[in-house]
Design goal:
Blueprint (H helix, E strand, L loop, with lengths): L1 H19 L8 E4 L1 H7 L2 E3 L10 E4 L2 E6 L3 E6 L7 E7 L6 E4 L2 E6 L2 E6 L7 E6 L13 H5 L13 E5 L1
Length: 166
């Protein structure tokens, strides 16, 4: 009887591991190639509703509001009663931002991008330094996902950056 209980316990432990971390059951990454990341972004878009605000940077009457891993909302705050969304700068992998002398410095996964925001109605890309930052394959995962015991498949950086999981 003891041998049966012990055997059942061992089988359940190992089967739990395979169910919890099956190689074929892992969440598959959604990649954005380096070429597409660098050719298509940053992209100045029409304003859109702020989903989940991150860091906020005040630049004169302009608010630059980060939406983690998605981009930056540009808001005219000259009328404090009625702020006006001006643009959305789509920047995959953006987490941080800084402004100095009319230039917006942002990260895009591993790259550093410099944007000229002196004319807020005509934002232009000035420079992109590639591979400045270390790559974090878990960057696209939410805090909630990271806290759960889940399996996320990752096969290296050769396919590009991971922008989500399916």
């Amino acid at each position: 009887m003891k041998l049966f209980v012990f055997s059942a316990l061992v089988v359940s432990l190992f089967s739990g591991c395979t169910e919890k971390y099956p190689y074929d059951g892992c969440h598959e990454p959604i990649y954005l190639s380096y070429e597409k990341l660098r050719e298509d972004y940053p992209a100045i878009k029409e304003p859109r509703e702020i989903g989940k605000a991150g860091k906020i940077y005040v630049y004169g009457d302009i608010l630059l509001i980060n939406e983690k891993n998605i981009g930056i909302h540009v808001v005219d705050n000259s009328n404090k009663e009625k702020p006006k969304n001006l643009h959305f700068i789509e920047i995959p992998g953006n987490i941080d931002l800084a402004v100095k002398e009319g230039y917006l410095y942002v990260d895009s996964f591993i790259d550093l991008i410099v944007l000229n925001i002196n004319d807020i109605d005509n934002i232009t890309k000035v420079d992109r330094k590639e591979e400045v930052f270390p790559y974090n394959s878990e960057q696209a995962l939410s805090k909630e996902d990271l806290e759960k015991d889940r399996c996320y498949h990752y096969d290296g950086e050769k396919n590009g950056v991971i922008i989500g999981y399916k």
